[in-house]
Specification:
It is a single chain. The protein is built from two helices and three strands. It has helices at 23-32, 63-77; strands spanning 12-15, 83-88, 91-96. The chain is α+β, with helices and mostly antiparallel strands.
């Protein structure tokens, strides 16, 4: 899914919330396609799936922090004016920023 430029037309859900704790795996994968490097996991467990086909972060005690760092990276590396990478109603993707009405 590596893209060099993202536009308004790309907005929407990229990871359905139904994936639950496994959302972090896909968030990291998308961010890694854009240069993200995971740092800071001091756990001594493996992050590679049993068959070696993908990296699994769901069981890592730092999964939330890693997902946040990957999301921050996407907002820096693949920014779209007026949009943000992150969660919306339980799903993760590229969403239009809404003005706050007070």
């Amino acid at each position: 899914m590596t893209k060099n430029t993202w536009t308004q037309a790309d907005a929407g859900c990229y990871i359905d919330g139904a994936r639950g704790i496994y959302m972090v795996d896909r968030i990291v994968e998308i961010a890694e396609d854009h240069g993200f490097k995971v740092e800071g996991c001091d756990d001594d467990h493996s992050h590679t799936a049993g068959d070696g086909s993908y990296t699994s972060w769901a069981a890592c005690e730092f999964a939330d922090e890693i997902a946040d760092e990957a999301t921050d990276h996407m907002n820096e590396a693949a920014a779209v004016d007026g949009f943000y990478w992150g969660f919306n109603d339980g799903d993760w993707g590229l969403w239009r920023c809404r003005e706050m009405l007070w």
